[in-house]
Structures are given as structure tokens and as C-alpha cells.
Amino acid sequence: MAAAAVAEAKRRGLAIPISQSLRPFHEWLWDVTPAWNWNWHYQHDIYQHLNNLTDGNRRKLMLFIPPRHGKSELVTIRYSLWRLIRDPQTRVIIGAYNQTLAEKFSRKIRRLSTGRLALSDDRTAVQDWETTAGGGVRAVGVGGGITGVGGDLIVIDDPVKSREEANSVTYRDKTWDWYTDDLYTRLEPGGAVILIMTRWHEDDLAGRILRSEDAPNWTVIRFPALAEKDDPLGRSVGDALCPDRYPREELLKIRTVQGGRSFSALYQQEPQEQEGDIFKRSWFGYERELPTGCRYVRYWDRAATADGGDFTAGVLVAKTPDFYVVVDVVRGQWSTYERDKKIRQTAEIDYQKYGNVRIVGEQEPGSSGVDAARAFVRLLDGFSVTVDRVTGDKATRAEPLASQCEAGRVRLMVGAWNEEFLDELCSFPNGAHDDQVDGASGAYNKLVGTLDASRLVDAV
Prior knowledge:
By secondary structure, this protein is an alpha/beta fold. The chain has two domains: 3-223, P-loop containing nucleotide triphosphate hydrolases (Rossmann fold, 3-Layer(aba) Sandwich); 281-457, 2-Layer Sandwich (Nucleotidyltransferase, domain 5). 38% of the residues lie in helices and 20% in strands. The chain contains 15 helices and 16 strands. The strands form two sheets. It has an eight-stranded mixed sheet with strand order 3-4-5-2-6-7-1-8, with helices on one face. An eight-stranded mixed sheet has the order 9-15-12-11-10-13-14-16. Helix 12 links the parallel strand 13 and strand 14 (385-389). The termini are far apart. Mean pLDDT is 88; it is low at 1-6, 9-18 and 450-460.
């Protein structure tokens, strides 16, 4: 619609009807930003999938494309605007890892709308603006509330800021809860969802969706920077996705600087499981029930700093006739008082659920370690409790458990702690923390009797 007509419609408070003359999206792009190239091979495949969304043939689309290949400018900004021009009553929700980024996208959409869309004077904030027809854009960051508004089109672009966030189970849980409890509940009947993100971690938002019952409803577009076997675009193995911008040679230089794991996530959109020098994620299976007659040990690696520093971790391991099961992990950054309260509560819960659980506490060297060991035994008066005077380095103490893990004889009970536990094991010994490794290896060693009797201290 011409700028004069838009101004007149705005002045008279009239809604802009669905445009009958608006060009198809891939042609319209040249009108709105003629200086950019909208004719790269991979973009045409995206256009087709967006057409399916527009026509209602598909309603959920995941888009995984390398950085700096225009996915946000193409989809989040211009496709959202095109949908608004096509029908100014469309309500668009833009989600991102924080409010600032979401508002950046919203601001760009609104700037490009000048002369193309009649905007309301009543609602003009960058995080929430409207057309004169009642549609508009709402911008929200992960964790932000979206009450009071529905979405005909929801675009989630970059819900994860960095590898640090991606590796955080707490952040992944927060993102998942925000998506399921806040964002998805705003989707109008017949509405569409687009998820655009870098696949930093296999348990990210996309990974959780693709493991859910909703997975069959999603169309997944994954264009690696360097073509792999059976490339969806018909490229030969190793060919660049957009050689005009990022030729193969430049991508190989980036891979050299980043390393294989980061390049696989950022540019190939294929997150690799974190693998350490001792434990491998692929070694572990899962259990939902335990047989009767198991032997149990809960091993505590203790710290005493609230909200910072080292973690206290108590790892419960069971020995079954055929294998070992990591049953439960209790972990936190607690003060001495909070830690001791949690240890005592955990012992009472373990007794109620599993009966006689042997409790072992790690003893640090020196006289202070002896005093702490005696206090640990007094704390657990009435339970089967010993302390372990550790010797040798942590990696050596973990090797017996790692050998059984590699042989497929260690499994995990399904629980919310699983990912955080595996993340630590699979970054050991180079990760920031090792308390869960100490707890698991200590419990295993106690179960198989490899804790030498001379290392057990009578601390009563």
C-alpha cells in the first residue's frame, strides 16, 4: 500500500484489509531491501517452508542455519513484517534469550514497516506495539511473562545466549518452562511457531521438543555450513552453504580457531555430546525401577560455602546382581548448617525408601579433617555411617568406576539430576567441579570393597 494511503488510513482510524496485491514473500523481499541478495540457493528452500506456514499446511518450523547467514533478518524480521502487511490483524510474538534482543528484533520490524503498515497511536512501546487493525508485535525475553496477549505467529530466535547458558541445566530447565508454560500457551488456534537457534547442546529447547510427543508436528530445516553426506540441498560433501559470503576456505579457518566441538554446534548445527578424558556419555543407560535386594551406599563429598564456591554432593549408588545404578544425587552450595540439615534429611528419606543405606563421608587431610569426620558421624547417629580418609588423586580414585561404565555396567535412574551429573562426569577432570564424580566413585568403591580398611576411621 502506498505511503499516502497508509497515512490516510491511519488518520481515519481504518484497518488495512488483507492485501490482494502484496507480492509473494520471496519477491517482496527485493522490494523492501533491494540492496541485499535474496537469491541464494538455501534461501529458496526456506521460502518454500515459509509458504507452507503461511498457507497453514504446516504450523511448526525449526530452522538451524550457521551464524551470519541471514536467518534472523530473513525470517524473524522480514517474514514477520510481511505477515503483518498481508494481514494487519496478525499478532506476532518475538522471543529471544533476553528482553534486549527481543526488542532489537521488534524495533527493526517496526522501522521497516514505515510506509507499509498503519500503526496505532495507542500502543507504541517497542516491546508491545499495534497496527490500527489490532495486530502488532510483542517482544519478550526468556522468562518474561506474556499474559494478556495471544499469538498468531510466534518466532523464537536465539533462546540461548552462549555455551555457558547452554551447559547449565538450570537455564535449560528455565527455557523449557518458559516455552511450555508461558509462550506456547499464548498460541492461538491455527497459529504457527518458528524456532531459530544455535544448537549448542543436545538437551537444548530444540532437543527437548524433538524428544517430546510434539516432535512429529515439527518440520526441521538444518543447513550445515559445510555439506555432509545426503545434503538436503544436493551439495557435494564439504561444499560451503553460501560460498559468496563464507567460502569453504574461510569456514575451515574458523573451524581451526574454534575447535571441532564448537564448530559442530555453531556452524554445522549438530551439537556434540561433551566427552571427557575418563567418562563418555554414551556409556550410560537408564533405569526406571530397581530390583529388590540391592545394596546401597550414599557417599558425601562435603563443602561449606553458601551460594558460591564448591558444591556438596551426596551420590546414592545401588549394586544389583547384574550392574550398578546411580540412584540419586543430592547437590547444592550450602552453609555448614544447611548442609548438615540436608545430609540428615537425606539419610531419613533414604531409610524410608531403601532401608539400610550405608553412608560414607569423605575425610579431608589434617586435624580439621578428623574433627569434621567425627562431627559427620555424630550428625548421623542411628544410621550406618563411616568416613573415608582419601588418598591419591581424584582421577585415580575414579578409574575403577570408569572401567565399569565403559563396560556398560553402570546405569542411571531417570531423574532431573541426570544431565547435570553427566555434564560433570563428561568434563572430568577438566571441568569446574568434581564433587559428583567424587561421590559416585566413592560410593562405587565402597560397594565393591575397594576402600581399604586402613582408610576407614573410627570417628566416634
